[in-house]
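Minutes, methods subgroup
Present: GH (chair), OT, SY

1. OT presented the first of two proteins processed in the latest run. Sequence and structure tokens recorded below as shown on screen.
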Amino acid sequence: MEARAISRYNRQSSRKVRQAADLVRGKDIETALNILHFSSKKSSFSVEKTVRSAVSNLLNSEGGSGINPEDLYIKTIFVDEGNTTRRYRARAMGRASIIRRRTSHISVVVAEKKDRISNKTKNK
């Protein structure tokens, strides 16, 4: 069984958020949340929030009441680029320079560990 959570229009660049997402890809939930919670990156807060939301979605889903949160892992996590709003700043001699305010979309899928084992045996 698996569940997903998507956090859209985060006010951080996708390149910076991917650094936090790469830290926890494929890890079990408890380890991933510890890594994100104690990471010094600003983007780790929004990734942690999205992971917690995905776990909550799985536990609140139909048939999710019997699932132990310790038996979950991050199946997939990826960060896409969102909209970029553009602002202008006045510069010397009547010119204007552009300021790009980038956003990102975080997608997390969590699944049970027994699914990971059965998928490995199917691929062989």
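2. SY then presented the second protein from the same run.
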Amino acid sequence: MNKQEIRRAYLKKRSSLSAETVRRWSEAIEKHILQFVCENNFQVILAYAAFRNEPETLHLLETLLAQGKTVALPKCGKNGQMTMYRVTDISSLQEGAYGILEPAKGEIILPEESELVLVPGCAFSRENERLGYGGGYYDRYLPACAEAVLVGICYEMCMADALPVDAFDVTMDYIITEKGLVNKV
């Protein structure tokens, strides 16, 4: 199967999840992320607002903000570029490109300032490869986060043994699922 077919298959699996399953698995993922943040004392975290049955992130974002962390979310431009803006209040997020919640323009957090980047995807592999949504936003952005730890976030059912990758695809340092941290390869 090619990337498009694999993407469609994983999105179909994910869309079939019940709201209760998404809630339960998202709570477990959040617990593992918070533990990882605490153990590594990350202060500047680039994250995302969940979309289309991705693991929920709004409560996680509120918790990180309450802990005094600097949190930034992406705003996607029409030119295929992504900019991270600091978020200080979840209620200020608004629907943006593709219907995803994003911050209004404000303070930009540069990629080199990031310590941890939480990355969404359709699927991830046991080799920490990521299959995104096909827009290339993260593959263009992540190379500039040279000092940051990259963590893919997904459900265990979205883990593959291997995925097709291109030279521009960025590999994650870790993956976190509802079952915990998938070790660095």
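Chair's summary of item 2: The chain has a mean pLDDT of 93.
Next meeting: continue with the remaining queue.
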